[in-house]
Amino acid sequence: VILRMALRCLPVARAMRVRVFSTAASTAAGPAAQPTVAGGASIPTPVDEGKDYWWCACGLSKSQPYCDGSHQGTPFMPLQFTAKKTGTSYLCSCKATKKAPYCDGTHKTAEVLSKYVAVLKAENAALKARLAQLGQQ
Predict the structure, then answer these.
(1) Residue 15 to residues 34, 66, 82, 87, 95: CA-CA distances in angstroms?
(2) CA atoms lying within 13 Å on the CB side of residue 79
(3) What is the rounded CA–CA span in Å between residue 107 and residue 111?
(4) Backbone angles phi, psi at 47, to 5 degrees
(5) pLDDT in tens, 41-89
(6) Are 68 and 78 in contact (CB under 8 A)?
(7) CA distance 37 to 131
(8) Where residue 113 falls among pLDDT bands split at 50, 70, 90?
(9) What is the DSSP string of the chain?
(10) Which entry of 9, 20, 29, 122 is 20 to 30 Å from 131 by CA?
(11) pTM of the full predicted structure?
């Protein structure tokens, strides 16, 4: 049920770049910063052996899965990696992977899905409220 709900809400989440997961450590100044979820599945990405790439860790890049500099002003920095072989790499878009920049399937776990669904429900409610406001104008 949770998976079906997440999949139905996925297009909205991608468009809104929903914040769900933390990849940053907590600091004395407060809780960990939350990266923006750029998607709910891995991104099949062609890479060339020996070439350096910069994976987006903040989730704000419009060039997912790569960094476009949108992290400026956030506590996140892109992750540089060098492709070990030419082919397709499956890069993380949920920003919850333990093997950054590669997808480890974390987006499929019940814990991550339940957090994802909770945020999607909240965002859906906010969209409905905004649509209602627009309808009254």
Answers:
(1) 17, 17, 29, 28, 16
(2) 20
(3) 9
(4) -135, 155
(5) 899 999 999 999 999 999 899 999 999 999 999 999 999 999 999 999 9
(6) no
(7) 23
(8) confident
(9) -HHHHHHHHHHHHHHHT-B----SPPBTTBSPP-PBP--SS-EEEEE-TT-EEEE-SSS--TTTTB--STTTTSS---EEEE-SSSEEEEE-SSS--SSTTB--SGGGSHHHHHHHHHHHHHHHHHHHHHHHHHHT-
(10) 20
(11) 0.66
Return the structure tokens found at 78: 């892109």
d(CA 35, CA 71): 10
**What's the one-letter identity of residue 72?**
Q
CA dist 46 and 69 (Å) reads: 21
Tell me which amino acid residue 13 is.
A
Structure confidence at residue 15 as a pLDDT band (50, 70, 90): very low
